[in-house]
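Predicting structure from sequence has reshaped protein science. With that in mind, we have picked out one protein's residues alongside their backbone shape tokens:
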Amino acid sequence: MTYKKGDIVTGIVTGFENYGIFLSFDEGYTGLIHISELSEHFVKDVTEYAALHEEIPCVILEVDEENKKLKCSIKNTPFALKKDALIDHGFAPLKKQLPIWMNEKLLEYENEKEKN
């Protein structure tokens, strides 16, 4: 198989580092999905995007034929968007919780006001 920039291929997850996910491909090729190519959101833990030995579809960004290495991305792919939907990013949990806290405090305030 010949790999080309822009191709969508399936790789098997072989390992993780804080900076990305390592993959293996046919014909002895290996690949890396850098943390910056996992999501448009802040990524705290790369293991939230894949499991060891999982097959994941990715887009080839660069091909190094001499060393049989691929730079890959899943950013904005259907696969990553599904993962993103399951992960709380940045201030998203706060955004969810803030109206609840505000209502609780408002009720406390109103109860205190009624007592006085």
The first strand starts at residue 8 and ends at 17. The radius of gyration is 21 Å. The chain is about 30% helix and 30% strand. Residues 8-89 form a domain with the OB fold (Dihydrolipoamide Acetyltransferase, E2P) fold (CATH 2.40.50.140).
